[in-house]
From TrEMBL, chains A, B:
NCBIfam families: PriB_gamma (TIGR04418). The gene is priB. InterPro entries: NA-bd_OB-fold (IPR012340), Primosome_PriB/ssb (IPR000424), Prisomal_replication_PriB (IPR023646). Keywords: DNA replication, DNA-binding, Primosome. This is Replication restart protein PriB. One of its GO terms (cellular component) is primosome complex. Pfam families: SSB_1.
Length: 99, 99
């Protein structure tokens, strides 16, 4: 069962680091993506916004350093919660895009 | 600028084939995904729903054949329209998952 998104995006906003009841660091952020995609034989400007979450040691490492930066992300999509169907990218890998 | 989603999903609902003003066949569908992902050292049940669109000859080829089936899809994410920020998967490749 595949579920893998690779996205280059700018971190528009980054929350303060928080912790789960079990003590895991959690960093939530909001991403903006813009690119040009070739689809069906013609070029197209593509834009989207998506919420993303980083959990664990990486969350602590990147906290406070992401907002305003462009990053390459990979991870999987899930709905926000049982009651909220909004899509969230669960980040498994993040790296800064060199400017 | 990366923007690539690979997703295994069940086609919950499929619209009737329609055509753009330029005559391109368009097939819209609604996907349901469920899987188990290993993240941050533990397994997690993941679910999401996303709208998807297939354009061109493949739309004609798959029209009427997708609903109820499980498929592997790859494509890119965009917002639905300038005014509607909802995420849509623009399908570039689709194949049936053998049952």
């Amino acid at each position: 069962m595949q579920n893998r998104l690779a996205l280059t995006a700018t971190v528009d906003r980054e929350d303060a680091l928080r912790y789960t009841p079990a003590g895991l660091p959690v960093l939530e952020m909001w991403l903006k993506h813009q690119s040009r995609q070739t689809a069906y034989g013609f070029d197209r400007d593509v834009a989207c916004e998506i919420q993303a979450v980083l959990i664990g040691e990486e969350a602590r490492k990147f906290s406070g350093k992401l907002a305003g930066n462009t990053v390459n992300l990979t991870g999987f999509l899930s709905q926000r919660s049982l009651r909220n169907p909004r899509l969230v990218l669960n980040i498994e890998y993040v790296e800064f895009v060199k400017g």
